[in-house]
Amino acid sequence: MTPYITIRKAPGNWTVRAGGAVLGESSNALELTEGDYPSVIYFPREDIAMAFLDESDKTSHCPHKGDARYFSIVTKSKTLADAVWSYEDPKEDVARIKDHLAFYTSDELTVEQL
């Protein structure tokens, strides 16, 4: 791994909720730390209810991780646009995040350790 990014198994169990619904729970989440940024929890895709997610047109590029694609979360009351991202083909140094999803937290979207 590059010294700039560290990835480790996130300790304990984690949950992600949006619009009052639990989107997923995992005991296999990863914690990615990049430079001085706050750590981000990446959930295995198989632990997330993908029926709540719609792929969006947004993409981005990180020189350390590669190209990300985004998803919006559809709740009962609204759509949280581009609230989820995934590196489908990450760079070799961060290959562990392949098939994982990360979430932008907000008042309407929480990622919590149980």
Automatic annotation (TrEMBL):
It comes from the Bacteria. Signal peptide: none annotated. InterPro entries: DUF427 (IPR007361), DUF427_sf (IPR038694). Residues 15-105 form the DUF427 domain. It holds the Pfam family NTP_transf_9. This is DUF427 domain-containing protein. It comes from Cognatishimia coralii.
